[in-house]
């Protein structure tokens, strides 16, 4: 929803002082008041209730469920660039490795930025690789931090789900102070805790609810941010920013029966009723930024350096290593299994100036710059106990053959020219060159036009190309997940096991974007935007190959994975492996419509109405084949992740009535249909088949969000509210397509969440 039309924006333009209403590309501005009004304790979940073009995972598996990512326009999170105050944000080290539309993503985790530090968010719904580089295929999310030199704000949010679980507690504090009369420092901090939710159906093996695989992870996060600026002279300002966050989280794995321990009395004594392994995450994330900017003879210049790092220590508790117990008699129940480190050091020099040329009626804004970025990625080994024999149960430790340190250098240069060709006709040209030491060069361009026919009617359009360079995690990550009767390996694209089965090096994803739309204000206080878009993507990256049985076992053993000793007696279709590859080309088409309207009620206050819709469809236009076998790299299930796992539509509409001390907000959200191809798990000819699937349609769902606020005093405000207050749930998965029967809702999609209703109480204090 386009809000704050008179606000000065910095996203999608290199011009100084550009207003949102004059933006040459579709731009949403989400204020901190809008974020707070959702009652959500995280930025990711708040944005998903405000922006139709933005989606989040329904649930998620394993360690990937403990990292919070966002998607724009039905594309992988890697295709959305995240900036903080216009500077590229470092990415998470925790790859989402499980099958699903988010598979392979290591996008920035926006919830590691304190929500208390955020002033507003600018969301550019347009390809912008020519302006910002890799990842800006679907758009750009630019998080603008608070810079006030005074005041104090405190917020407390307490919430619980309609099932009485998933308790959440969030405390958010921020305040500013002046540095003499020439600068500011603003300090912000969050403390957020959420409990598990439990949404599993009875386990087929026991008929009980002991299997908690379908659940929201438990997590506790502490984060802090310091943002500062100081005017060295009237024309030169120094600035700095730092964020730090720590997260401890845990995610359930499938329940193991007590009968599996009959031959191991030591473990049987510990787990007399069986056990549910829990993957744990101990994460430390920080980013430091320093820069100087100013004006010199009409030139605006900015020199900055940003270093970010994310470290994830992944472990297991409530688990076993039966091989170790059999050999040594020891009984460890907790393991260190994986360690991932991601670092990014970005250095930028940017400049811009407006020129006036004789014979040219309008000024020409010329901008340019250069950038150097270092990217590093490390995979650590598991502890000896997690590696011995078949490894720790549920998630075996990373073996030395799949560990290592990897890095690359990225250099770039860009130029941007903006001017007015004639009265009301804006032109923006951008070009960018980038060189990667591992995947080569990319050249990207963008042409944008906007024509204001009248003060109330404008047309705009953009043509551009873009790219997403394969992440180091996509190139080198590997892992083995073991369930009670199945095993799945994701092996490195350049590893011996992958190369032996037809893998080749990863290339950048490339896109061609076209967008056109109009802005109208047919009557006073009514603002409507409509934008149609098409994104053609080539060489999309996700796991392909899908080998199974003995072939998969051989590939994993070539990579040093230790498999269960009895794996030869398992259903061979339940043993699979794949690797990241450039698997396909797709075409995404859609339309965004937003509308806002203000109704003034005189002595009875005002109502701010808003409505927005995103219609989105992705189709497969080409699929890559295995050079050794000629078989397609994707099966029907993987194709569905690319094309139909994101909502076909998302509609948000409602209003907010404000009068005296009262504010009441009411919004409806319609989540469109998603379609997936489900594996058969019930006994029969198609059990665990990788070629025959059941088409599953997650039907459209309506949810209602309501909040009521009362300003108790000029400084204190209390709010009660709820999201999805009538507790809608996703469409249930057929019984025969649930592994072990427990996951009654499908986790590998991006529609309605699994938790049902969420009700909260919020208190705000402003000084």
UniProtKB/TrEMBL annotation:
Q: Identify the SUPFAM superfamilies for this entry.
A: Porins
InterPro entries, sorted: Beta-barrel_TonB, Beta-barrel_TonB_sf, Plug_dom, Plug_dom_sf, TonB-dep_rcpt-like
Note the PROSITE patterns from the entry. Answer: TONB_DEPENDENT_REC_3 (PS52016)
Indicate yes or no for the key word Transmembrane: yes
Membrane topology term: Multi-pass membrane protein
Query: Which superkingdom heads the taxonomic lineage of this protein's source?
Result: Bacteria
Q: Which GO terms describe its cellular component?
A: cell outer membrane
Name the UniProt key words of this record, in alphabetical order.
Answer: Cell outer membrane, Membrane, TonB box, Transmembrane, Transmembrane beta strand, Transport
* TonB-dependent receptor-like beta-barrel domain segment(s): 242-725
Main location per UniProt?
Answer: membrane
Localization per record: Cell outer membrane
Tell me which residues make up the TonB-dependent receptor plug domain: 20-140
Family membership, please give it.
Answer: Belongs to the TonB-dependent receptor family.
Question: Can you name this protein?
Answer: Ligand-gated channel
